[in-house]
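hey can u check if this looks right to u? its 156 residues, i copy pasted from the old doc so theres a chance i mangled smth
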Amino acid sequence: MLIFYLDISDRSLKEIVGDKWENRVVYIRNKIRKSYLDQISLLEYYYFLGEHLEKRRWSRNSRCFIKEKFFEEAFKYVWKSAKRVYKLYKTRGVHNLLTVQHTTTNTLNKLSVNDYSLLLSEAHKVHEEELNMFLGLFIPFAEAQASLISFAEAQV
């Protein structure tokens, strides 16, 4: 039997400022560079960077833009972090960023390709189990509601 804990966070996702893709990426870069960010905020900004890069399909042009905006030695770390954080929380659900307790960008970056693939696979599995649990709760409710509607229509 699976037990799910729902932790409702009082935090909300950050808002990314900027009218153009490039301006939003620079805004995210400036936030990532801040040394005082807590891990949840840092994960959020890497997620949003990954989301912006996904919109450009991780293209060569977007790669060059990121390379230009970050120091050369930081580029590989930033690119890999953005990709891994985005893929993980796209799978798991971005809302999970707000309640994360043990995942950090450093941890995700240090995982081997095999370990990261295993983590993604588990995230897919957990997401599917949560969805099935939700549907399992929803279907009886929908059936009961349909029965009530049928009963009410029969009374008319």
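The helical segments are 21-32, 39-55, 60-69, 72-92, 105-110, 113-155.
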